[in-house]
Amino acid sequence: MYKQQLTSEFPTDFLWGGATAANQVEGGWNLDGKGLTTAEVVRKGDRDHASMGDVTADSIKAAIADPTDTAYPKRRGVDFYHHYKEVKLFAEMGFKVYRFSMAWARIFPQGDEAQPNAAGLAFYDHVLAELAKYHIQPLVTLSHYEMPIALTQKWNGWVDRRTIAAFNHFTETVFKRYRGQVPFWLTFNEINTGIWGFHETGAVDTDLDKQAQLQIRYQALHHQFVASALATKQLHEIDPQAKIGCMLARMQTYPAAPDPQDVLAAQQADQQNLFFTDVQARGAYPNYMNRYFAEHQIKIKMATDDEKILAQYPVDFISFSYYMTTVTRHGSTATTAGNLALGEANPYLQTSAWGWQIDPIGLRIALNEMWDRYQKPLFIVENGLGAVDELVDGQVHDDYRIDYLRQHITQMREAITDGVALLGYTMWGPLDLISFSTSEMSKRYGFIYVDQDDTGNGSLRRIKKDSFYWYQQVIQSNGAKL
Ligand code: BGP
Question: Domains in the chain, start-ordered, CATH in brackets?
Answer without folding.
Answer: 15-476 (3.20.20.80)
